[in-house]
Design goal:
The chain is mainly beta. The protein is built from no helices and eleven strands.
């Protein structure tokens, strides 16, 4: 059974940085494209960034482009989200998700396409 465990959240001031990590276990990590999503109080869960199985294809929501970077390390079964220039509106619970897909360059922002989800890690940006 695949399990995802996020870490790295916390409280940071506006303009600060955080690095989220997601540990993948219980399956073949290389067979999954990965995504980071977030959900703020009272709002729907939204896509933040995705990375393909190959690691060569990434995509970002417009509101994080130029500030966030998604990466993966297949040797460690890890996916990361480097977050810079954080804003109060980035405050949310951040979730890691895995999409089992045979295509090496496939990514998707569709929540329902993801097969497994972590429990989330809270990111709070103070003004």
């Amino acid at each position: 059974q695949v399990q995802l465990l996020e870490s790295g959240g916390g409280l940071v001031q506006t303009g600060g940085s955080l690095r989220l990590s997601c540990e993948f276990s219980g399956g073949a990590f290389s067979g999954y494209s990965m995504g980071w999503f977030r959900q703020a109080p009272g709002k729907e869960r939204e896509s933040v960034a995705e990375i393909s199985r190959s690691g060569s294809i990434t995509d970002y929501a417009d509101f994080v482009k130029g500030r966030f970077t998604i990466s993966r390390d297949d040797a460690k079964n890890m996916v990361y989200l480097e977050m810079n220039s954080l804003k109060p509106e980035d405050t949310a619970v951040y979730y890691c998700a895995a999409d089992r897909n045979p295509k090496p360059f496939h990514i998707t922002t569709t929540l329902d396409a993801y097969d497994y989800w972590g429990q989330g890690t809270q990111v709070t940006v103070s003004s």
